[in-house]
Write a structure and sequence with these properties.
Largest interface: A-B, 22 and 27 residues
Number of helices of chain B: 0
Distance between the termini of chain A: 41 Å
Order of helices and strands of chain B: EEEEEEEEEEEEE
Helix content of chain B: under 10%
Largest sheet of chain A: 6 strands, mixed
Order of helices and strands of chain A: EEEEEEEEEEEE
Distance between the termini of chain B: 37 Å
Oligomer: heterodimer
Largest sheet of chain B: 7 strands, mixed
Radius of gyration of chain B: 14 Å
Number of strands of chain A: 12
Number of strands of chain B: 13
Strand content of chain A: over 45%
């Protein structure tokens, strides 16, 4: 069974600064994916970034990047140059490759970007 | 390309009533997932379809819950004899399976259910 843990219920950051959200996971799968999803207030969940576990290179998407530490089972999200629109719940999730590929989510981190 | 849509967006019902939710996935997506999200928690997997076949159901899904995807396009999730504990956001997601790897899941806006 897969589990995902987000230990920071809430975080805040000043506009234009950098913030890192933490995530640890546990899985017995050899092939799996890791994701960060963003859920703005009263809006739908959207994918921020995705990492294939077999790839050693950390994924990046514009201002968003991850620090994937496979041995430590850690998958943190770094947001650079934070913007007010980054205010949202952020969920870390994992899925196994093959089979249902259902997502297993953490409890989320509420990020507030302050002006 | 329209995204995943869900209807209704909000539903208030009395305990014991039946409710049905609809999800329209992104066209050509062959996989469709249902998740449930309660306040302060991340979404939890309920069930998923590949085309019209329901391939997996979570143990969270009691006998009062049933889901269908009759023609491999839209899906419905029905809850019979609702209970207050069913109050939650019900999320639908879809993805495209090509080969053995499913692509990213795209989520709909959700249906928020309140059982009084």
């Amino acid at each position: 069974a897969q589990t995902v843990t987000q230990s920071q219920p809430e975080m805040s950051v000043q506009e234009a600064e950098t913030v890192t959200l933490s995530c640890t996971y546990d899985t017995s799968e050899s092939n799996y994916y890791l994701f960060w999803y963003k859920q703005p207030p009263s809006r739908q969940m959207i994918l921020v970034i995705r990492q294939e576990a077999y790839k050693q290179q950390n994924a990046t998407e514009n201002r968003f990047s991850v620090n994937f530490q496979k041995a430590a089972k850690s998958f943190s999200l770094k947001i650079s140059d934070s913007q007010l629109g980054d205010t949202a719940m952020y969920f870390c999730a994992s899925s196994s490759q093959g089979g249902s590929e259902k997502l297993v989510f953490g409890k989320g981190t509420k990020l507030t970007v302050n002006p | 390309d329209t995204g995943v849509s869900q209807d209704p967006r909000h539903k208030i019902t009395k305990r014991g009533q039946n409710v049905t939710f609809r999800c329209d996935p992104i066209s050509e997506h062959n996989r469709l997932y249902w998740y449930r999200q309660t306040l302060g928690q991340g979404p939890e997997f309920l069930t998923y379809f590949q085309n019209e076949a329901q391939l997996e159901k979570s143990r969270l899904l009691s006998d009062r819950f049933s889901a269908e995807r009759p023609k491999g396009s839209f899906s419905t999730l029905e809850i019979q004899r609702t209970e207050q504990g069913d109050s939650a956001m019900y999320l639908c997601a879809s993805s495209l399976l090509t080969g053995t790897v499913a692509k990213t899941q795209y989520f709909g806006p959700g249906t928020r259910l309140l059982v009084l």
